[in-house]
Q: What sequence folds into this?
């Protein structure tokens, strides 16, 4: 039977709405409004997990996103399971299941707990020191580490939920809806700024919404009463959008912020279906107001991590907001007045508070007096030196602190308790602030890092800006709002605050024990099990930079990013090394502030939208005819068309033979097409291609090679002169976008005087390439009236014509060495054109072929493919294409580089043909080429770039780049493979129809 | 993520732009007159300054215009933006 620790009805908990949920397989009950943490605490469950390294039992520590211990797996074993979720942030719903992580077989009996007793053998840097050597053992170590670490399990089936992205532009973004955020948002919106207010919680109001301290008054009301009224009023203000359950994950430059809006995580499974689960908000704000509040710090003392030890502020929130008592015998340990407020909160609800242990000598505030009047025992100048209780706190031992705070004296007093609230002061939540690139400064008096130098239009207000008392908050907020919004008056002018809060505080980063430090466990980072001892060890071993100490001890490197312990780590380093905290600086707070799901990051870009493909107008035909596809850039191109269960090799052999023997047809629609017009179009082409263009007649085509300014081949393709000032350029499929970009760059920046206009028309045209000795007859059937004679329509020329009513452009050009035509029509007629060609070609057994056959056919002719036979280090001279480089032109892109000493070297790698001595052996593309076999090491002369079995030549052919290959014709070389050496002979790269007789066949 | 004020379109997200390296490096008018060293200076040598840097940017997913930017690389503050052919602002 579990205890019920509900202490009073809370307005935020709907006790009429009882919810059952499971934790570690056991059923519990809570109410609508509970978090998993508050519901567990109400059932007296503190033990929720095991620590990472020592597997120590750990309990719920906080009430928010800074939680280091209560990390759970949600809905284990389902397709909606999620690891590493903070129980303090999970709103419960009917049917919720959660389980502890990092423990096996159960949280109650955890085999890894043995590490706790072995802890002297797990010092800082243990993993680095132990697992570094020998390197070959790493795989074994990794197996061991992964099994014992086990921080949650990722889902194994696909995510059923929908995720979304939204862009938001606003004048003012307010992050955090506590008192400061609400007042800031209200005044911004009222002054006609388009305002967005976000908060990670489901309720507005931050900690002030349950602030019932009777000694603090705003306009004569308690802060809680007053703020509730403010919230009621401001919900209807126009210009204001409010988003709860929305956590800002990252604050980038130029006020660009990413936030995760949680829409269905708090709903039952049946209500989650077909809804967007989480939405990534991409916010661009003119001004940002950070009102992210402050996080309470724990205190660092021996065995400060037992279940039942919590932040004092969390105990107050569970009591005031959730109506839950965290223990029946409560003790507080503090260095400031905060713990007294928590104690009074419990006292007012009739919950037993045993004692308050205060490291200060005294405090005279009204709240302290009230605690005294309530009869709660206060131990001034005392410190906790040890705690007891393995799975739940049982007692604390205290001793008197010496005057300098470095040791304890006198006799030990033991106080029995089941819950300890620790209050170590407040740390402004400056994480987002520093992410924006803005700089912090250490405030020696308040012992905190505060915003100092902003890089964008932003302000930090409230406690994240260093104001902790309500009167200070209102006063400074008012001034900051007036300055940043450029307004003269605000609502805050008329707010009257009465306050009783003493600022007295005593800061000791590491509290002493009666035992030497080596025998104690004062945890600094709970999640990574880093203790003060580890930090001191790191310093003894010579680490000085805070970033190094962090990595060596893993302090602050968990999923909580050290939200609780970072300040203590700095303080301990500063004290030990004898430097000032301000000089140490902080570690970098990296985004995200709280973890994001992958779903949120990718949004809608999943499944077929993961990577968008481009498809040609003929695509449906290829699919219907069972083509296999290959990805070329973003395009899906038909690769080959297997029939009757052919392998790829068989299909390609058949297609290649058919194209040369009768007729083949290729979908060439993906080639880049750039329309070039203007009175300087010819001059422009002269400058961007290596060859000359001025004399190209209208209606003629020419192959062009484009270089980079460094002289290396960049792209190639055929350009046709359509009119006096009008050309159409084709580029490689993958190079189209880059070529256009490069041409535009030169036109805009180097040659703005040229009258040239460029338009990408790749998608406007569909292209069918008809090739083979019967291609002419097929085209004649499609366009009977067109004169296809060599005199009227020779190779490398162009005709504008019509297929029925459809306008078309026909180029007689060839990439296969066969007589062929490229027919271009408006894209929407592409499939129609294709089907007409297939129909007309039937009697000639027209064979559709894909990219693989195209590659084979052009390799038989020794035509290069830019990007396959070239790799950005080949000049046209290296390719033995000297013929295309104009000697007469004064300049073109890359020309000067062809005369650099390096590009003129004779021993550069040059393109050659390779024939294997055994004609049936096909070389592997990428295989290395050497001239000696019995030498080690041996010089690599080059590599194979293209290799096929040619069905037309009935032998293996290859293209290769070989050092000095130009002068090696007929030379025997070797291609050493894993289990054999292949003998090859350097050959002319034009293997087929060297005299180009077939072009006019 | 920068917010870049394209001189033709106005403020747009950095995602729409392409960076194009150091600005104000003019392509030599008579490359053939240059020595290997002089040509190499134009071809390869670029500054990589911590501080004020003059850069080329292209509104690739917008108007596709090239323009110049003065940026402090130490904190990514954009100091000025001006069109191609315009004189850089004096520091
Ligand atoms: Zn633009």
A:
């Amino acid at each position: 039977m579990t205890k019920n620790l509900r202490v009073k009805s809370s307005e935020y908990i709907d006790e009429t709405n009882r919810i059952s949920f499971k934790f570690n397989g056991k059923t519990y009950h809570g109410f609508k409004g509970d978090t998993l943490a508050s519901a567990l605490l109400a059932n007296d469950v503190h033990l929720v997990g095991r620590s990472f390294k020592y597997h120590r039992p750990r309990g719920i520590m906080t009430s928010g996103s800074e939680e280091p211990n209560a990390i759970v797996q949600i809905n284990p074993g389902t397709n909606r399971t999620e690891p590493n979720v903070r129980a303090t942030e999970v709103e419960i719903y009917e049917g919720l299941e959660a389980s502890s992580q990092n423990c096996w077989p159960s949280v109650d009996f955890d085999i890894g707990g043995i590490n706790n007793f072995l802890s002297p053998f797990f010092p800082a840097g243990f993993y680095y020191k132990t697992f570094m050597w020998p390197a070959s053992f790493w795989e074994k170590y990794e197996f061991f580490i992964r099994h014992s670490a086990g921080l949650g399990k990722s889902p194994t089936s696909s995510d059923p939920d929908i995720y979304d992205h939204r862009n938001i532009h606003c004048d003012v973004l307010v992050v955090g809806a506590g008192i400061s955020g609400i007042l800031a948002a209200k005044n911004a919106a009222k002054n006609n700024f388009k305002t967005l207010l976000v908060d990670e919680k489901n309720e507005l109001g931050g900690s002030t919404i349950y602030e019932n301290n009777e000694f603090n008054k705003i306009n004569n009301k308690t802060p809680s009463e007053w703020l509730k009224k403010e919230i009621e009023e401001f919900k209807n203000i126009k210009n204001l959008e409010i988003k709860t359950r929305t956590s800002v994950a990252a604050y980038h430059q130029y006020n660009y912020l990413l936030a995760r809006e949680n829409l269905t995580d708090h709903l039952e499974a049946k209500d989650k279906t077909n809804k967007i689960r989480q939405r990534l908000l991409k916010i661009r704000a003119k001004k940002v107001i950070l009102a992210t509040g402050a996080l309470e710090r724990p205190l660092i003392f021996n065995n400060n991590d037992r279940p039942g030890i919590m932040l004092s502020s969390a105990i107050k929130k569970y009591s005031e907001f959730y109506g839950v008592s965290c223990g029946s015998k409560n003790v507080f340990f503090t260095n400031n007045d905060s713990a007294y407020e928590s104690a009074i909160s419990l006292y007012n609800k009739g919950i037993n508070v045993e004692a308050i242990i205060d490291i200060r000598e005294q405090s005279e505030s009204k709240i302290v007096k009230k605690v005294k009047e309530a009869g709660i025992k206060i131990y001034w100048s005392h410190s906790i030196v040890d705690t007891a209780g393995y799975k739940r706190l049982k007692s604390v031992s205290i001793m008197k602190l010496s005057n300098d705070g470095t040791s304890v004296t006198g006799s030990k007093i033991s106080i029995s308790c089941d819950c300890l609230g620790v209050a170590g002061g407040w740390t402004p939540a400056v994480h987002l602030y520093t992410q924006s690139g803005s700089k912090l400064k250490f405030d020696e008096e308040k012992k905190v890092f505060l915003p100092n130098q902003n890089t964008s239009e932003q302000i930090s207000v409230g406690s994240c800006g260093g104001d902790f008392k309500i009167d200070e908050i209102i006063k400074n907020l008012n001034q900051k709002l007036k300055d940043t919004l450029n307004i003269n008056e605000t609502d805050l002018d008329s707010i009257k605050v009465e306050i009783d809060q003493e600022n007295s505080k005593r800061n000791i980063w590491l509290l002493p024990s009666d035992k030497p430090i080596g025998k104690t466990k004062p945890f600094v980072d709970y999640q990574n099990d880093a203790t003060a001892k580890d930090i001191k060890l790191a310093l003894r071993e010579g680490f000085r930079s805070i970033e190094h100490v962090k990595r060596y001890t893993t302090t602050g490197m968990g999923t909580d990013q050290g939200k609780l312990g970072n300040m203590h780590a700095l303080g301990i380093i500063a004290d030990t090394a004898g430097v000032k905290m301000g000089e140490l600086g902080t570690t970098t707070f990296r985004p995200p502030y709280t973890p994001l799901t992958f779903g949120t990051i990718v949004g809608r870009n999943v499944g077929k939208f993961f990577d968008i493909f481009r498809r040609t107008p003929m695509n449906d035909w290829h699919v219907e005819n069972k083509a296999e596809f290959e990805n070329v850039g973003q395009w899906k191109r038909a690769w080959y068309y297997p029939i009757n269960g052919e392998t790829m090799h068989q299909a390609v052999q058949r297609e290649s033979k058919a194209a040369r023997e009768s007729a083949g047809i290729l979908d060439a629609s993906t080639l880049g097409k750039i329309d070039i017009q203007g009175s300087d179009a010819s001059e422009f082409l002269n400058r961007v291609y290596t060859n000359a263009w001025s004399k190209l007649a209208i209606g003629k085509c020419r192959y062009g090679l484009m270089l980079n300014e460094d002289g290396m081949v960049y792209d190639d393709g055929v350009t046709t002169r359509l009119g006096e000032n009008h050309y159409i350029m084709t580029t490689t499929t993958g190079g189209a976008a880059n070529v256009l970009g490069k041409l535009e760059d030169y036109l805009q920046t180097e040659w703005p005087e040229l009258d040239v206009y460029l338009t990408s028309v790749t998608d406007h045209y569909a292209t069918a390439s008809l090739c083979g000795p019967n291609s002419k007859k097929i085209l004649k059937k499609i366009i009977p009236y067109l004169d296809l004679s060599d005199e009227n329509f020779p190779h490398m020329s162009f005709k504008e014509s019509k297929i029925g009513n459809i306008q078309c452009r026909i180029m007689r050009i060839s990439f296969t060495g066969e007589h062929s035509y490229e027919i271009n029509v408006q894209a929407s007629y592409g499939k129609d054109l294709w089907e007409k060609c297939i129909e007309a070609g039937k009697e000639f057994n027209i064979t559709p072929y894909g990219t693989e056959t195209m590659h084979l056919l052009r390799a038989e002719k020794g035509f290069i493919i830019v990007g396959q036979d070239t790799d950005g280090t080949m000049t046209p001279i290296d390719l033995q294409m000297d013929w295309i480089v104009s000697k007469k032109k004064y300049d073109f892109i890359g020309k000067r580089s062809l005369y650099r000493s390096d590009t003129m070297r004779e021993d550069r790698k040059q393109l050659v043909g390779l024939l294997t001595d055994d004609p049936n052996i096909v070389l592997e593309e990428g295989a290395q080429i050497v001239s000696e076999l019995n030498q080690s090491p041996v010089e690599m002369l080059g590599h194979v770039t293209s290799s096929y079995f040619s069905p037309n030549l009935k032998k293996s052919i290859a293209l290769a780049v070989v050092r000095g290959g130009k002068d090696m014709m007929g030379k025997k070389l070797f291609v050493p493979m894993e289990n054999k050496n292949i003998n090859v002979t350097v050959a002319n790269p034009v293997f087929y129809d060297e005299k180009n007789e077939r072009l006019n066949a | 993520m920068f917010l870049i004020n394209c001189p033709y379109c106005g403020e747009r997200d950095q995602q729409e732009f392409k960076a194009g390296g150091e600005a104000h490096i003019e392509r030599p008018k008579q490359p053939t007159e240059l020595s290997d060293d002089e040509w190499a200076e134009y071809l390869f040598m670029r500054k990589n300054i911590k501080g004020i840097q003059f850069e080329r940017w292209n509104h690739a997913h917008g108007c596709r215009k090239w323009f110049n930017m003065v940026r402090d690389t130490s904190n990514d503050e954009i100091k000025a933006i001006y069109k191609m052919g315009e004189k850089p602002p004096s520091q």
